[in-house]
Design goal:
Elements (H helix, E strand, L loop, with lengths): L19 H16 L8 H14 L20 H8 L6 H19 L4 E5 L2 E5 L2 H15 L5 H17 L1 H4 L3 H31 L3 H26 L8 H12 L2 H14 L5 H20 L1 H24 L7 H17 L45 H17 L3 H11 L5 E3 L8 H15 L8 H10 L2 E4 L7 E3 L4 E3 L2 E4 L20
Antiparallel strand pairs: 1-2, 3-7, 4-7, 5-6
Pfam families: JetA (PF18982)
InterPro entries: JetA
C-alpha cells in the first residue's frame, strides 16, 4: 500500500540513516539539473554523472561510510567497468566514488525516488509524480521562499471584486482565491515559526556575544527587515482590505444572478456534474476565503506576541550586559562557583532539616487577663473630612462628563426619525455622523443591543426599555456586515421604528442644537 496514495513505502528511508545529508544533496542536484525547468528525456548515465559530480563536490558527505550494502559489480556504469577490465586505471578515491555513485543510484531506485524505463538498449530515468511533488516541497523548505503577503491580499481583493462585476470572465479566478488564501496562511505560519525558532535559538546560546549575533543576523537581518517590513510598512497590510473582501463576499453570496453564472462556468470547467453541485463548490470556495480573513486577527496577535517576547529578551540583554563588569559580579561569581563545587559532591546537605522548637516556660503573667467591664456608648461627633478645592473640581468634572455623554431620550429619538426614510427601516451604515452629539447618539443606539434585557432598575436597562418603545434594533437582512467611517468602526445593524414617522411640532420634539467640537 502506497503512502499518501502516490509515495513508495520506503521513500523516507534515505533520510533516516547516517548519510541523510548525502541523499539530500544528490536529490537536490538531480532536481535542479533535470526536473525543475526542462522537460528533456533523462538517461541513466546522465543521472550517474550528476551523482558523481555531487560526490566530487561534497567529499565530506560520503567518506568512511560503512552502514549500507554494496551493489553487485555488473550493475555499475559501463565506462568504469571497461576501465577496470583494462587493468584498473582508476585510483582508489575514484574507485570509491564510483562504487558510492552506483550505490546511491540503486538506493534511489529501490526507495521510489527514481524509476527506469527501457526502450531497447536505451535506459531512461524519470521521477514518479508523488516523489516529484514531495521533492519540490522539500526544496521550497530548504530555500525558505518567502510569500509576499501584501501581494496575495491585493490579488484576492481584485479577484473577488472582478467576480462581482464580470462573473462570466472572472469565475476561473475564484479557485485561485482559495489557493492564494492557503499561501497566505502558510506565509503567516512561516513568520510565526521563524520567530519561534529565533526565540528558541536565543535560549540555547551560551554566551552574550552569540545571543547578540543571533538576534542581529536572524531576527533583525532576516525577519524584521523583510517579513515585518512587508507586513507593517506596506500599503497592503492584511487588515487594510479585510473589511472590503468580507463585504464583497457577502454581497456575492446574496446575489443569485452572479452565483448562478459562476455555477454555470464551474460546470464548464469540470468542477461539478450539474449546476447544484457547482453552486455548492462556489459557496465552499467563498466560505473558505471568508473564514481565512475572519481569522487574521488571531494570527497577527500570535506574531506580535512572539515579536514582543524577542524584543524583550533583546532589551534585557542590552540593559544588563554592563553588569558583568561591575564589582558585585566580580565578587559574587567566585562565591557562586565555590558553592557549586561544594554542593555537587555533598548533595545531602540540601535535604530538609527539622529545627527543634525550644521549650517555652508558661507563667502566671502569660495567662489571659480577666474580662473588663464594657464601656457604655454615648453620643459623639463625627469629624467631617474637608475636601480640597482640587478634589471638588475633579468631582464636578466627572459629573459634567457623565451628564454630557448621557443624552436625553428625546434627542436620540429625534436623531433617528430625522434620518429615517419613509419605509421606516434604516441601517447603521447609512446614519450620518456630523458632530459629537451625533456620535454620542450612535453609541447610545449601539448600546441598546448590549444592554441587559431583564427587568432590573439599572440605568442601562431603563434606558433600553424606553428606547425599545420607539424603535427596534436587529441584525437581520443586512446589505453589509461592517460600519466603517471616520467616527466609528463596528458591526452593522438595522433600526426599525415601532410607529409611523412623526412630524416635528406634533408627535416629536424638535432635535436639539448640535454641539460641534
Amino acid at each position: 500500500m502506497s503512502l499518501f496514495g502516490s509515495l513508495h513505502d520506503d521513500v523516507f528511508l534515505v533520510f533516516s540513516r547516517e548519510r541523510k545529508t548525502l541523499y539530500e544533496a544528490v536529490l537536490t542536484a538531480i532536481y535542479k539539473s533535470f526536473f525543475e525547468i526542462s522537460a528533456q528525456r533523462v538517461r541513466r548515465h546522465e543521472i550517474l554523472d550528476t551523482i558523481y559530480s555531487t560526490l566530487q563536490d561534497n567529499p565530506e558527505l560520503w567518506v568512511e561510510e560503512v552502514d549500507e550494502d554494496l551493489v553487485i559489480l555488473d550493475m555499475r556504469h559501463s565506462a568504469f567497468r571497461g576501465a577496470r577490465r583494462r587493468g584498473g586505471d582508476l585510483n582508489e578515491a575514484t574507485q570509491k566514488a564510483t562504487d558510492r555513485k552506483t550505490q546511491v543510484y540503486q538506493t534511489l531506485l529501490r526507495t521510489g525516488w527514481l524509476e527506469e524505463f527501457r526502450y531497447g538498449i536505451d535506459v531512461r530515468v524519470d521521477m514518479p509524480y508523488g516523489s516529484l511533488l514531495l521533492l519540490e516541497r522539500l526544496i521550497d523548505i530548504k530555500r525558505h521562499d518567502r510569500v509576499r503577503i501584501g501581494g496575495l491580499i491585493h490579488r484576492v481583493k481584485m479577484q473577488i471584486e472582478e467576480c462581482l462585476k464580470n462573473p462570466q470572465q472572472a469565475a476561473h479566478s475564484l479557485g485561485d482565491c482559495k489557493e492564494s488564501c492557503q499561501a497566505f496562511i502558510r506565509g503567516m505560519r512561516s513568520i510565526l515559526g521563524s520567530l519561534s525558532m529565533v526565540e528558541k535559538n536565543i535560549v540555547n546560546q551560551a554566551t552574550r556575544n552569540d545571543k547578540l549575533k543571533l538576534l542581529m543576523e536572524d531576527f533583525i537581518g532576516e525577519l524584521l527587515l523583510q517579513d515585518f517590513h512587508e507586513m507593517y510598512a506596506s500599503k497592503t497590510h492584511p487588515y487594510r482590505y479585510r473589511a472590503d473582501i468580507i463585504n464583497s463576499i457577502e454581497t456575492l453570496l446574496h446575489d443569485d444572478g452572479n452565483m448562478l453564472t459562476l455555477a454555470h462556468v464551474y460546470v464548464g470547467l469540470g468542477y461539478g456534474r450539474n449546476v447544484e453541485e457547482a453552486r455548492s463548490r462556489v459557496v465552499e470556495d467563498l466560505h473558505h476565503v471568508r473564514s481565512t480573513f475572519s481569522a487574521i486577527e488571531r494570527n497577527l496577535q500570535d506574531i506580535n506576541a512572539a515579536r514582543l517576547r524577542i524584543e524583550h529578551k533583546l532589551g534585557n540583554l542590552v540593559r544588563y550586559s554592563h553588569l558583568r563588569n561591575t564589582d558585585f559580579i566580580k565578587r559574587a561569581l567566585p562565591l557562586v562557583e565555590k558553592l557549586s563545587r561544594y554542593v555537587d559532591p555533598n548533595k545531602q546537605i540540601l535535604a530538609p532539616v527539622r529545627i527543634a522548637t525550644p521549650n517555652r516556660v508558661v507563667g502566671e503573667g502569660q495567662l489571659r487577663a480577666p474580662a473588663k467591664p464594657r464601656k457604655k456608648s454615648g453620643p459623639s461627633y463625627a469629624n467631617a473630612e474637608e475636601i480640597s478645592p482640587i478634589d471638588q473640581y475633579k468631582i464636578e468634572l466627572k459629573e459634567a462628563h457623565a451628564q454630557r455623554i448621557r443624552l436625553p431620550i428625546e434627542q436620540i429619538v429625534s436623531y433617528v426619525f430625522e434620518q429615517l426614510p419613509e419605509s421606516g427601516t434604516l441601517e447603521a451604515k447609512d446614519l450620518r455622523i456630523e458632530s459629537v452629539d451625533d456620535y454620542l447618539v450612535f453609541i447610545e443606539i449601539l448600546n441598546v443591543m448590549y444592554a441587559p434585557t431583564d427587568q432590573n432598575k439599572t440605568t442601562a436597562a431603563v434606558r433600553r426599555r424606553l428606547l425599545l418603545k420607539e424603535f427596534r434594533v436587529s441584525t437581520d437582512g443586512l446589505s453589509s456586515f461592517v460600519v466603517d467611517n471616520d467616527w466609528v468602526r463596528c458591526d452593522n445593524f438595522r433600526i426599525t421604528t415601532s410607529r409611523p414617522k412623526p412630524t416635528y411640532g406634533a408627535d416629536l420634539v424638535a432635535p436639539t442644537e448640535k454641539v460641534l467640537s
